Amino acid sequence: MDNTKDKGNRGSTLVLIVICASFIMLLTSVILSLTVTNRQMKTVDYRAKDNFYMTETAIDEIRVGLEEYVAKALEASYLKVMEQFIDNSELERRDIMRDEFLDNLEDSLCSSPGYYSIGLLENLLSDNTGFLISSGDNLFLRDDDSITLKNIRVVYEEDDGYLTTVSTDIVIHTQETTFSSSFRTPAFGGYSIIADKMIKLDATGLANGASINGSIYAGDSGIDIFSSRLDISNGSYIVTRGDIDVGNNSVLNINNKPSIWVKNIFLKSDTAEPFEISIDGKCYVADDLTIGGNNSRVRIQGEYYGYSYGYYGEGLVTPPLDAEASSAIIINGKNAGLELSDMDALLLAGRAFLSPDHAGDSMEVYTGESITVKDMQMAYLVPSDFLWCQHNPVTHEEYLAKPIGIPDVDYSRSSLFPINLVDYVDGFYNLHYIIHGQQYKYYYLKFQSETKANKYMQKYYELFRNGNDQLINIDDSMGKNVDSIMMDSTISNIFLTAGNILTYEAGSANLIDNNVDYGDPSFDAMKQMAIQLSKRYDSMKSNLEPISASPAYDENSVFNSIIDLSRLEIAPARSTYSIDLDGEAYYVHIINNPGATFYIADIPNHERHGMVIARGSVCVDKNYQGLILAAEEVELRPSVNVSASKNIVEGILRQGNSNINSYFRDYIDISAPETGSSSEGISVRNLIELVNWRKNE
């Protein structure tokens, strides 16, 4: 008889459990390590972008600051020439002008012979905290026609050690000129239309739309297109203090890569065109791009910056969150489309909000998305299990009948909802909507933070992309609202989004997680970009250029900053002046028509090139070349073309005709040239050149 006990395989099982546990621990450690590494890499990338942007901005500020020194040196050298004007020939005047100009710059910029002042450059920065301008090899080189500031090296280092350097040489050139006038190149020279209130097209039609060649500016009432087509080409800037509003049956095409500075872009159009808005350029949008028209489509190529996140102020770490200044892209129309293609940069500093249509509601509900469609708001409803009535929304009558003492929403209720809401929310919002005459109360989730809103949408998408009995089917809902939302995966420069991005193609939605975390370096990078772009928009609205060496005469009126309104108010109802430029006559029309409209067709055909200055509005019902300046509105009629001509505008002003120049604030004192002489304007900006630009060397 065998008395040996059968021990079975219990020992082997224990060994196997230990091995499996060890493997799981090892796998967990690897995943955790990869996650931490990825997080660190993203942080480094965000910090690097932020550092580079700040450092590049410092170089821009140094260049703009040097413009003031160059302008003063030009003025002093010009006065020197005037003191000895009679005693010298034209050639001698030019030599004196050049030598005095270089001498004045050397006296202003040098700390010792042969070396420019580092401290002077540092003082040109609006905020030099964290910046260092290298003091090594700061050579000041001078030859017969230029000076060079060698080895300017700007270093920007943040408190946590992130550092970027940009090195460059700055060359300041001289320019041969005559002395019949002291001329400054106007910022408005390349503009075709400047309307202090609005630029509008109304019922010009798609086949006979209007076209503009050159930059344009519109005031608070914006650029309004209704039942029309507008093509804009060959401009540097498209600027408005207000919105670009593309209304019903309208098309807007913007080409040749201008910079577009605008508060909002609204699209409500539905046409047979491939795109109702097509932009190839750099869009700087202070608030939202909203696609509201059914079947409407937008294509943007180049760069898009929706840069607002609340309001920024001194010492304000986190601005208040509201819909008015939180940049997002929102699609409200059915079967609409969005294409972001060939993109070099995308910044969306805000997120979509849900706003009530009831006067008694003051709150707005923020979501976890920076690009979204209207019906996705249903994902943020409080699940019906947590409401006293077990359904959401509820009618106003149902709410009035709610038993006293029972809470509207109780997140501790038993529910099959698989997301633990207390991890994301700390309350709820009520929004009221009127639907078919019936008032409804909708209950929405109130998130603990914006980060929690983002995380909630990511979890929601993960669990319920295909929907269930309680929740929306994301793919199905997107398909009912949009034809497509397409975005390149090869954005090469900046890609920062405060909220998640929903794209849609071929019947399937895709969620791109946000990459800005509040309190993280990524948020700091976004905030700094937003602050800088806000400043540049302010400058564009007042000075028609992103950085200006001097403030505008009237920050609230571009027209009044260019034209002396007091002079225009006492002018005749209409005056016309002829200027000869290289044997061809150009015409300046001064129109004193407050509250009325002047028609370009009232100008003889041979006089429709030059400038029109109107105290009231202008209707462009015939083609025009040059600049139209209106204190009120400019309206474009079918098939017209307005073309900017910098040469014409500058040529007219350079003549120094007192009948014309007396209306221009900055050009009233320019005297007319002697017969037979020519006058070449000096652009201070064009005299300053960055060469040998280098990064992190």
Record keyword descriptors for this entry:
697 residues; alpha/beta; ten-stranded parallel beta barrel; five-stranded antiparallel beta sheet; 26% helix; disordered N terminus
Structure commentary:
- With 697 residues, this protein is α/β, with parallel strands linked by helices.
- Among the domains are: 134 residues, no CATH class; 125 residues, no CATH class.
- The chain is 26% helix and 33% strand.
- It is built from twelve helices and 39 strands.
- Strands 7-9-11-14-16-13-10-8-38-36 form a ten-stranded parallel barrel. Strands 3, 4, 5, 6 and 39 form a five-stranded antiparallel β-sheet that branches. The chain has a three-stranded antiparallel β-sheet with strand order 24-26-25.
- A hairpin with a 3-residue loop joins β4 and β5.
- α1 crosses α2 and α1 runs parallel beside α7.
- The N terminus is likely disordered.
Structural class: alpha/beta
The largest sheet has its strands arranged as 7-9-11-14-16-13-10-8-38-36
Question: Overall pLDDT, averaged?
Answer: 85
DSSP helical segment count: 12
Strand content: 25-35%
Strand segment count = 39
How far is it from the N-terminal to the C-terminal residue, by CA?
88 Å
Largest sheet at a glance?
A: 10 strands, parallel, barrel
The coarse silhouette is globular
Give helix % range.
25-40%
> What are the low-pLDDT stretches, counting only 5+ consecutive residues below 50?
1-7, 311-317, 673-681
Q: Tell me the Rg in angstroms.
A: 32 Å
